[in-house]
Structures are given as C-alpha cells and as structure tokens.
Amino acid sequence: MAQRPVVLVVGGGYVGLYTALRLQKRLSRGRAEVVVVDPQPHMTYQPFLPEAAAGSVEPRHVVVPLRRTLPRCRVVTGAVTGLSHAERRARIAPIEGETYELSYDVLVMAAGSVARTLPIPGLAEHGVGFKNVGEAIYLRNHVLGRLDAASSTDDPGVRRRALTFTFVGGGYAGVEAFAELEDMARYAITHYYPRLSTADMRWVLVEAMGRILPEVDLDMAAWTVKQLTARGMDVRLNTRLESVTDCHVRLSDGDEFDSDTLVWTAGTKPNPMLRETDLPVDERGRVVCEPTLQVRGMPDAWSAGDLAAVPDLTKETPGATTAPNAQHAVRQAKRLADNVVASIEGREPQPYRHSYAGSVASLGLHKGVAQVYGVKLKGWPAWFMHRTYHVSRVPTFNRKARVVADWTLAAVFRREVISLGQLQDPRREFVQAANTGRTGSLPPPSAEDKAQSGTLRAS
Ligand SMILES: Cc1cc2nc3c(=O)[nH]c(=O)nc-3n(C[C@H](O)[C@H](O)[C@H](O)COP(=O)(O)OP(=O)(O)OC[C@H]3O[C@@H](n4cnc5c(N)ncnc54)[C@H](O)[C@@H]3O)c2cc1C
Asked: Where in this protein does the record put region Disordered (predicted)?
C-alpha cells in the first residue's frame, strides 16, 4: 500500500459520515487522505424526516453538513458513477463539469439504497418517495397546500381529491410519515381552517402484506393499526396499488378513488450504481461482505449499510444477513473504520457483531410505538423514547441542540403549519413577469401552471 494511502468513501450518509469521522480522528492527514464523495453536501438523519415533514423539526436541522463535520477530509460533491477496484480507479461525476477519474488505495462503498418501485401505471408520473429532505419539505408544503386548495373551493370533487392522501408501504418510514403528516394536517384544520373538518380528510395506507411494521412483534403492529384506525385513518392490509392515472387511484381490493397525493414508501433496494463496479453482488444486488465488512475476494475494499450483505453473526440461520437500518449502519461504520485503520497498520480486522436492539416509531405528537430489548411501549412513553433515542443518536452536538430547540419552541409557540408552496417553483412568478414585459399582457395559465397549483402532477 502507498506511503500515504487514499481512502475513498463512496457516500456521505450514515455509514460514510460515521466512517469518515472515525478515520479523521484515528488517522492524521500525514498518514492517509480520506476523500468523501456524495451528490449532497450533507448527511441526512432519515429517522427525523417524518418529524421534519410534520413541522416539528426544522428540515435544515435533520441534515449534517459534510464539510463542516469533516474538516480533515476532502469532500467532493458529486456522484461516483462506476469504479474498477482491480485498477483502484473510480469515475466521478461532479455536480458541475466533466466526469473524471480518481485513483485510490482503499475503498469504502457506502452509497446506500434507493426506492424499490414496481412497474405500476402512473406511479412514476404521480408518486413521490420519502427518503430525502427534499421529499420531506415537498410533502409538508404539498399537504398544507392541499388544505388551502380544499378550503378555497366549493367544488366537492376537487375538495375530496385534495383531502385524500394515499401512502403505499407499511414499514417504519411509511407508517411514521403517514401518521406524522395526518397529525399535522389534523392540527392545522382544527386551528386554522374553519371551512374544513377533520372528518373531510381521508388518509389511506396500502400494504401488500398482512401486517405493518415488520420491525416489531405482531401484537404491537396490530395495536398500531388499531390506533391509526381509531384516528379515522384507513389501513388496507393484503392490498396492492394497481394504478394511478390522472390522480385516480385503483387498488387490488376493487376500491378506487381520486387522490392528489401518492407517497411511495414500499421498500428500498441497493444502489443500482453497483452494477457499474466490479464488486461482487448477491441475488438481491447487495455487495457481498465478510463478517469483517471486507468485500469478499477484494483486498482493500470494504462496505456496510443498506447496500451491503453483511453476515449476521448473532443469528443461527445459515446465510442470515443484517437488516438495512440505521442501528446496524452506525455500528458497522465504527467497526469498518477501525478495521481500515487496523489493515493500514498491518493488524487483523475484527468481525462485526451486534444483536438488533429493537425499534422506536413516532405516530404523531405524543404518540408512538416501541419495542426495545423485548420491552414494549405504547403511546406517550414510546413517543418520548423515540425522541430521546434519536436526539442522542443524531450526529454532532450542534444538531442535537438545534433539534431540542425546535421541539421546545414548538411546545411554547405551537407547531408551524404554513405552506411555502413557492419553494416548489420559485422562478414561476418571475418568469411570468418577464413574459408579461415582453408581450405586454399576462399570458393565460398553461396546463403546467395549473398543475403547479399544488397537485403531485407538478412534481
Ligand atoms: C424516512 C426514513 C426513516 C427511517 N427511520 C429509521 C429508524 O427509525 N431507525 C432505523 O434504524 N433506521 C431508519 N431508517 C433507515 C436508515 O436511515 C438507513 O438504514 C440508513 O440511512 C442506511 O445508511 P447508509 O449509509 O447505508 O445509507 P444512507 O444513509 O442512505 O447514505 C447513502 C449516501 O450515499 C449517497 N449516494 C448515493 N448514490 C451515490 C453515488 N453514486 N455516489 C456517491 N454517493 C452516493 C447518498 O446521497 C447518501 O448520502 C429510516 C429510513 C427512512 C428513509
């Protein structure tokens, strides 16, 4: 290995950020150069996205700026579009300018996962995912924008469509987003929309399996369904989305209705960029790893997190691998960084071992469900545990303090429920003004303009 090896970290999410943080602490600049490549200039603390969408936390506070947190690493804002580990070369597409190649000595593959979609008619045109902060901000503005639209029309069809919110996928990301956004909309209608009633809203969660929240026991999942149903929400188990054409949703149970909102949270798959690499992948497209997090048969290549198949040493089932979640990602990152340092120093890497502690999920303000080390909590205690656990986990003291400040301010001044719909298309007004200047009159609204009024057709 080179005197001063270059460690290339692909992705600055959970695994990438935590690995780089540890490497910059344990390896001085003279010993190695750590290069972190990510299309975003920040890490996203995804478990806070539902609260960011619901307005309990400022969206900027759920992301951690890479350059500020990693002052001793080189941060490249761009995407790795492929690599040959045999040649130790990666192809990088910066956010601006020509693609170039970067030579490295040690690889950490941590590019995470992407939404797993199905070829459902209309899904790509009408759906939105829930994996990044842009989507969380968009949904918050969109849901509030739909309340504004419903409150400002007398057309019952438009109203019903605007107030019908459809979510597909009952894992923790989907259930939390569904429950948090409903809670926010309910609060907004109760306090600020006298022309609307909470009974006018229809929230539909569609799940193909016979249960939601596979991360907790069946009784806790059933309790959650009961809670959501008691709030007037419609949870459809053993049901699939068949199509969504012109905002018309069709389900496999025969039901169909109009809905301006379709959120897709039905699972993830490993980053497809892996196909452009020579790293070994399993039948699910994940990088095949040894228990030490080394990529199988590839010296100096390491991987962890959502896109890695890491043997789960705590389970007796042959071939068991760790689940794609933050709990494993954070711990794997620490083990991975220590093993990279060990291999640079000529020591043996150690295997990763962690038994899953459980899950905490928030279902709106003061509501939650949790199962940690076998202890089952419901309602307020679960919600409180969700908040304390995640604030202890979000990286950097700066972010912890800001998140706590957001919660405190929301408790004192009520939660912020204002739609900043202009964020979805900030240039629209200016372009219209410029066009008016050219023609002397206001152009009639185009179909696109109309769609920009808030429905997902504009997304
Ligand atoms: C809404 C939501 C809520 C969640 N809540 C929980 C929870 O409560 N508990 C829990 O345990 N888990 C939770 N998770 C799952 C958890 O966030 C993931 O398991 C974790 O983020 C995985 O870490 P990772 O580093 O593998 O991927 P990520 O954190 O997603 O990081 C991947 C990084 O790679 C970057 N990247 C992508 N493509 C490229 C490329 N071509 N080149 C370079 N970089 C690239 C991305 O921009 C990203 O920054 C939640 C997920 C979501 C979406």
From this structure: 431-459
